[in-house]
């Protein structure tokens, strides 16, 4: 069993810098398309055998140091009672968004072993398959990010409706966030119980918030989750995307590891975060289009920049793009291993 | 003539902190819709009488301290020979994107008094109308931002094609950027000659770049523009949107004023930028949904935060949203004036 990923999360000695890649089980892999071609995206998430199969693909093809559960952050709002569709060009659509206290009242805090049982089944299957290989990461969306989808009814550019609720109806927003947070906590606890060996909280849209709003409307819920999950005893990773201006606050969230997007220089982030938290990141996904010599230089720069942190897990600064040649992803994995081999 | 805006750009004493609002002539104003209802968006840009009319609306309705030419950054690629359409839901579309050296070869560096003569006509009309009121700001897109539209063929999330060209065909990218930069320089020179009293360079997508890419693929062209425009003798404003992580470099661009989006705390930005450059910004456009007492507190915080800068022009951190009630925009203008009246 390759435990470098888990050791890096805790700041322990590693044989090489571990690497995994956000969306590593995904559309850039022909093997993924073979499975995905048979079912819809949500069916893939909800069929443990298939979700397990695509989760394992990058472990075998790329040689990454961790697997991450194939799923989607929006299964949580769906389990809370919201309708959810994935439209080919538009992305996720929640046709009945939350806009009022009455809408909030309709949301349930689901029993995850019931409503999200397929996720726990996938995790149990995966742990068997991964036994001699690498650790398994579970995940969820952070409450603010989930709230944006639930309030906007899908993706957004300005997050107008979300911020309108935050600013003009803060009590409705808080009531909704309490339900989302409770749902996320029990969902992550169930993932850990089923066998997830680390948990990542994705705050994909945190970067849309001014610092004062992040402090008031997003961070407290993240802290509540991390506090509640501490007893589970697995490393906790918080990734606030586009979050360079939030680091002074994200570093207080209690996570073992902070994910970093590519906009921030990793050495600058480490200066702010300090030596007591591990970091994860942060190569621009588009950098995989560079010629190999230049790509290797960028990888080296990130490895050097992370040296002051408690630990470093190499990753991209955002999900790998569907257009990426798989051999370039493999090159990144091999290069990180080669450059850091003890 | 209210010259507070021009004085703030230069760091001179002002009667009150001047304010204008990005996209202040736009869809949140019923008066704008009355004009826009008669013509397409591009027709509005290209009809000097109508462009003049909508440019003047916020000066009269809101009492802002500067007018900004009603136009679009994409008139430059169109003048360079590219087809341009605005589709109601999709936004701008350039159906024949630049992907090869042959595509770059087809681009022309236009004579702006010919291809963009309608802009200069609008500026001359506006200067007459604004004579006793406020200064007029001209503008253009920064080369990197224009390049993203020209290469992607429209808006993008990942800027995959743009970065692919940067990384895999840097000489084609450079050739294209040279033409874009030359076009922008002569366009801004013509705007200044026609009467624009300040010029803003919008780098709307700069925040998609890692610092090393910004330094290599975006900033040199901005510097070239600013150097070329210095002899025009009008204040130059550079706005790198989502650019908190770029400030160490943007401050070297030579602009008199740096625009700031709402993600960065203005006092943190001023610490990095120093006391020799004025700043412009940076209220979250969504903050206009706050109750007035909370909105006023945010405005005060920004005014306080900007105190170490050479000068401060109040603005939003991004364009005003179409959903904004005009009376809230008026409240912001009045509040900035009231809180800073000498």
* Arrangement of strands in the largest sheet of chain A: 1-4-5-6-7-8-9
The overall strand count of chain A is 9
Overall pLDDT of chain A, averaged? 97
Instruction: Give the percentage of residues in beta strands of chain A.
Output: 5-15%
**Number of helices, counting only DSSP H or I runs of 4 residues or more of chain A:** 17
Largest interface: A-B, 33 and 33 residues
Question: Any idea what the radius of gyration of chain A is?
Answer: 19 Å
The CATH architecture of chain A: Alpha-Beta Barrel
Q: For the record, what CATH class of chain A applies?
A: Alpha Beta
**Spans of chain A with pLDDT under 50 lasting ≥5 residues?**
none
* N to C succession of SSEs of chain A: HHHHEHEEHHHEHHHEHHEHEHEHEH
Question: What is the CA-CA span between the terminal residues of chain A?
Answer: 17 Å
Provide the domain count of chain A: 1
Shape of chain A: globular
Q: Within the CATH hierarchy, at the fold level, what is the topology of chain A?
A: TIM Barrel
The quaternary state of the protein chains shown equals homodimer
Which structural class best describes the helix and strand composition of chain A? alpha/beta
């Amino acid at each position: 069993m390759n435990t470098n990923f888990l050791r890096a999360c805790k700041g322990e000695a590693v044989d090489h810098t571990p690497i995994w890649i956000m969306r590593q089980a995904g559309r850039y892999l022909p093997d993924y398309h073979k499975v995905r071609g048979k079912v819809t995206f949500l069916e893939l998430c909800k069929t443990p055998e298939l979700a397990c199969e695509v989760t394992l693909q990058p472990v075998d093809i790329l040689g990454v140091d961790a697997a991450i559960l194939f799923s989607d952050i929006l299964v949580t709002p769906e389990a809370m009672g919201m309708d959810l569709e994935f439209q080919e060009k538009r992305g996720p659509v929640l046709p009945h968004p939350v806009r009022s206290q009455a809408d909030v009242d309709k949301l349930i805090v689901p029993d995850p072993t019931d409503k999200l049982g397929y996720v726990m089944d996938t995790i149990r299957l995966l742990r068997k398959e991964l036994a001699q290989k690498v650790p398994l990461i579970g995940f969820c969306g952070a409450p603010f990010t989930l709230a944006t989808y639930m309030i906007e009814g899908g993706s957004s550019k300005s997050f107008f409706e979300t911020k309108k609720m935050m600013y003009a109806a803060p009590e409705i927003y808080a009531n909704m966030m309490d339900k989302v947070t409770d749902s996320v906590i029990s969902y992550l606890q169930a993932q850990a119980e089923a066998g997830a060996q680390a948990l990542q909280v994705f705050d994909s849209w945190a970067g849309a918030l001014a610092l004062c709003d992040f402090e008031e409307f997003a961070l407290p819920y993240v802290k509540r989750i991390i506090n509640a999950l501490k007893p589970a005893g697995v490393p906790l990773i918080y990734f606030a995307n586009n979050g360079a201006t939030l680091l002074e606050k994200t570093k207080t969230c209690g996570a073992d590891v902070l994910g970093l997007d590519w906009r921030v220089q990793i050495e600058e982030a480490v200066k702010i975060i300090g030596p007591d938290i591990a970091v994860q990141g942060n190569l621009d996904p588009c950098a995989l289009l560079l010629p190999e010599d230049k790509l290797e230089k960028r990888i080296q720069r990130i490895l050097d920049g992370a040296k002051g942190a408690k630990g470093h897990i190499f990753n991209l600064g955002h999900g790998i793009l569907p257009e990426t040649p798989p051999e370039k992803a493999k090159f990144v994995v091999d290069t990180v291993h080669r450059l850091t081999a003890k």
